[in-house]
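Batch job 17 of 40 flagged for manual review because the log was empty.
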Amino acid sequence: MFVVDDDSSVREALADLITSVGLSVETLKSARDFLEHQRPDAPACLVLDVRLPGLSGLDLQRELIRMGMPIPIIFITGHGDIPMSVRAIKAGAVEFLPKPFRDQDLLDAIQHAIEIDRAALQERTMVTELRHRYNSLTKREREVMKLMVTGMLTKQIAAQFKNSEATVKMHRGQVMHKMKAQSVVHLARIAEKLGIVGEAG
């Protein structure tokens, strides 16, 4: 996990607290440093000061959203106000803690944030695997899959494509096999995760 704060004493104190519960932590002094830092592909969270030189904490939050780099954020600040905290939470922050805060409140927020990121990472990994399977389908198999998940029967799909039912059955079998779907309902759930609409083409 990461701590971004321009005050070195705060960085050290937070690092000591976080490592005391067995978590590894990297500390950085600016938002720009965080953006340039390589993030490991593992559950993580970001403890972030709102007021930083250059890019502020809220600016960094917006930038991470824009770049499609989701990470749960816990804001800490000695100068926060209610509108600022509302803005941060609305944009997806896990917690907004005014200084001074209780150590346990921060540790609880970190635990919650890491659980959120663990679930999101599992979801992203699963969708990547499903996308890989979908990309292995031929063009016709993708067209058949899109019609299958709308509930169309083999003979209806055959009529649409002017194919024999035997040909469509073969395509359906390949779709189910390649997508590792146990049923058409399961296939429909996969299609939903991939954002595939039930239209041919």
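Reviewer: the log was empty due to a logging misconfiguration, but the result itself is present. The chain has two domains: 2-129, 136-194. Unflagging and moving on to job 18.
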